[in-house]
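Lecture 7, part B: from sequences to assemblies.

Below are the input chains for today's worked example.
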Amino acid sequence: MSDYHLYLSLIPEALIASQLEPKEFGSYYAVGRSGRVFGEAIFFELDPAFRSDDFAFDLADERCVTQPDGAPKSSVYLGIYNVLARIPISALGKLYLVTDDGRTLELDRGDYTPDREHPLHLYQEFCPKRPIVASRLEPQAFCRSITDPKRPVNLPRIAFSDLMLGELAFDPMNGKADDLPYPYIGHLRDVLSDFTANTKDSKLVLKHVREGVLYRTVQSGFFVGDHDHFAYYPFPTREELQSTYYDWWRSAQIAHFD
Amino acid sequence: MNEPVFWLAPLASIFALYFAWRFFREMRTQDEGTETMREIGAHVRKGAMAYLRQQYKIMLVVFALVAGLFSYLAYGLGVQNPWLPVTFIFGGFFSALAGYFGMQTATLASTRTTAAARTSLAGALNVAFRSGAVMGLVVVGLGLGNLAFWFVLVDLFTAGDPGDGAYLVLVTTTVLTFGMGASMQALFARVGGGIYTKAADVGADLVGKVEAGIPEDDPRNPAVIADNVGDNVGDVAGMGADLFESYCGSILAASALGAAAFAAEPAMQMKAIAAPMAIAGLGILLSVLGVFLVKTREGAGQKELLGALSKGINTSAALIVVASAAVLWLLGIENVWGVWGAVVSGLVTGLVIGRSTEYSTSPSFKPTRSIAAAAESGAATTIIAGIGVGMLSTVIPVLAVATGTTLAYLFASGFDPTQMTQGLYGIAIAAVGMLSTLGITLASDAYGPIADNAGGNAEMSGLGPEVRERTDALDSLGNTTAATGKGFAIGSAALTALALIASYIEVIRIEMIKAGTTMLDLGHGFSVATADASLLDFMAYYEVTLLNPAVLVALFLGAMVAFTFSGLTVQAVGRAAQLMVEEVRRQFRENPGILKGTSEPDYERCVAISTVGAQREMAIPSLIAIAAPIVVGLLFGVAGVIGLLAGGLATGFVLAVFLSNAGGAWDNAKKHIEAGNHGGKGSPAHRASVIGDTIGDPFKDTSGPSLNILIKLMSIVAIVMAGVTLSYTLI
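Predicted structure of the full complex, as structure tokens:
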């Protein structure tokens, strides 16, 4: 049994071995050892027993060891491309959301109940691509659809979150969108209203999100899955964020400049 | 001082200081909270005192040099009032003392406000507001007390016949020199404080929030304490010194103009001098009453909190209307209802300016909302919209001041335009009316930074959400009162400066007589005794007309000085903030433990950088403000000085309203978006609004308020240097 942790990072996609505990790793991954870099991150902690021929675990065994000065090894990269597709959902442990300044929120897996309340949905994908997609499918159905191997265009596995649409979920053209931080609201309305005249299940809204994770409008949580497997990580309620997880939430709300 | 009503002033001053002491003592007995809260409070207090120490050190040198120069002019060359070196030092000392008490109280009170907010909103409001009242009452108590003291002292030691009309003109114009010290100290507090507060704020935000991505008021930010200190430096010490100067200046100008207006009736003269003092005294009593009326219930909303404050302020204002009528009637002043009408004109002008500021900067109204809507199209349109709103926001305040001064002039002159001195006395007493309830209006200004710091303390101490909710409610209320307070400060500065310009001629008269010019040659074979000359005679003698190129040139120079001063102060914030940015970056770079929360940042170094930066950066703008009336006086004479003051006042007033309101509107447009409009927090519109807010910061907290000082300082410098102008002018 190794004495290091395995982390599957979604932003950016990578498999990393580290002797740091998850929260320490989150801080290190976001701001570096000297606090000279800043950048948010999302990563899973993997089952430590997970092994696969796709990755050079011997490299981790060799290099992910305590340093001569007694410090733990922070990171040994085992893969930086097409990683999510090569790790089964069963190997995924807790999910960690890390803000720009290295504050980490730990999410456990939860039981998933299909969302039947909203007729329309908006998804922010994190891995392997980073678009925003509108869909008439609820999260699990969306995941199954986009990872369906029978479809000519598909992904092997996907990680995403569902975003609030407010009144737009019910009335795309006239619903109030005042508190929605998405750029091009007019375009979003067009895309959503197109579902009434179109048989498509999902449509691209934005090719790439520059703003980072839109935590403020995460509706129910984070999802990862493929055509056969699906995992759900519930996001805390607004009340919990403002009380129990206040420090993380406050940090996640900072407006950053590019 | 044989007018019994006059003694209301010193008595009210003692009353104000007693209640200030009582509120201070009450505050000290409140719980100071946990050790962390006390520690954070101590950091802010230490930083605030470090700032004051540094400022006082520089002030001491500057005051010593200027007092030395005044002494030489007075005793060496005989071209200066011999009282000036002494009154100058006293004016500066007492203004600084008021600032010191205010800062001490505010920094002690914020921790206690946080502690009170742990259990009660009403309790927290009580601690914060009554602590703010300490500043308000100390300013009016020390201000009015000093004026009364100097009137009595100068009266005792001035040679002459008290029955002679010229005697009291001499006494009042001598006491007017007290304003110079207050003005100079206000320059340090307002301009230096304004640069300090924004350098710390912008520096903390740029590296902390934008670069490092750590939230506001996060203890890991090395500039966070400097930022909290800055709130006190700008809105407590700065605002206090600004209004101390306006308060004293308006009373002094009214007394000088009152003495001049009734020079032919010595019996009425003393009543005209006592009237502004008595109204100010009554204002103090009613302000204390108003402070006791500010109360709220547990769980009160924003509207109720604002209602609680308004109740105190409005009751004081309503009662002063009635009480001033009574005191003027008891005094038996000539044209009692006309003078009372002038007082009411001033009060109403202040209220209109306050409301207009609220309209222009509150997210509840169209102007600010239009900026928020413009943010949807990006930063450029946000900036354009903010500038437009700021410019348009000058309409109502300017019309209010124009209407107020016209009415005050007409009421006091009995609707007889030839009674110029009575009319000008009306304008000065209108300024006194506006500032009469300063005790409570300044309390609501000084309350703002206490509530703001209390919120910061709650954040840094990691207190629960219910505490932050309470401190946020108090802070939000403080933002509203701060915006209206700025409008009030600008309006009162404009009226005071106008009254001071009118007083300038009275000082010129005294200096001319002293220099031996007993007759004014008006040309065409007409001449008039200087002692009996009317203001129009002086205007004719000095050719103060728009056809005189000296007046025209100086008008342009006055306008230019206002813009130069603003430009320099805006740039000063940029440079001082840059130093802060570099320091915060250095600390993050050299001590990685800061961001991880394992080691404490060097807060004191940031406080020192902001302090030294502010003092250095204020030197050139200050020098311009002081030198302009002297240089113009030497080059273009009395006519030039009047042109300069008129140009500076007209431009400075409008520019100050524009800068303050544009900055306030940008700030609140951002808050409106954050409240869930136009995409809310994190949206492109929000980013654009953050840029607008950052540009608006030095507008509303540095350059805008600093212009109040410029317009008053130029007038008071012109007054005290009148003898030099007369003796050494080239034309």
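Note for the exam: The longest strand of chain A covers residues 218-225. Keep this in mind when comparing with the next example.
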